[in-house]
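User: Hey, my collaborator sent me this sequence without any context and asked if I could get a structure. I don't really work with proteins. Can you help?
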Amino acid sequence: MVKDENIKPGLEVSHDDLPASAAPELSALLKFWRSHKDRAGIPSRLVMEPFQLVAWLGHLSIYEALDGGRDFRNRLEGTSVVTLTGEDWTGRMASAVDQRFGSSLVPAMRIVIATGEVAIHTMKLYQDGYKDVTRLLLPVRSRPDGPIDQVFLALYVDSKRAEK
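Assistant: No problem. I've predicted the 3D structure and written it out in structure-token form, which is a compact way to encode the shape of the chain:
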């Protein structure tokens, strides 16, 4: 697993696997993503499209890499993500999210597109009350023969607290 010293462990805790506290929908989405990998190991938008993702649509945001991952533009913000965070970031940059919340979304997404590996983070949201959430970052190709140029972000409130 590639680590980035710019990811702030106090805010976002990285995991190799989904934690026990994660909503079951994340496990189903991760299984779907893994089952649709192409020969290069990354699903393309041919399968990662709305009709295939209907079960998760409200919880997904789609980010597009700009300049090889210098930054990422939010192309679509799921309605459940807007409800959780209290803001719609559609059309805005991931760096603006990091500036506003002190998060490390851009460095995490850079790792995802560089490695082609899924990233799993747990964190706390304080908008509209305190919530524990799990964020899943999935690398995707917009074209089957193209580079990894999109990251699907899935965000769910944890279904239960992890045992300490």
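In plain terms: The helical segments are 24-35, 79-85, 94-101, 105-115. You can pass these tokens on to your collaborator as they are.
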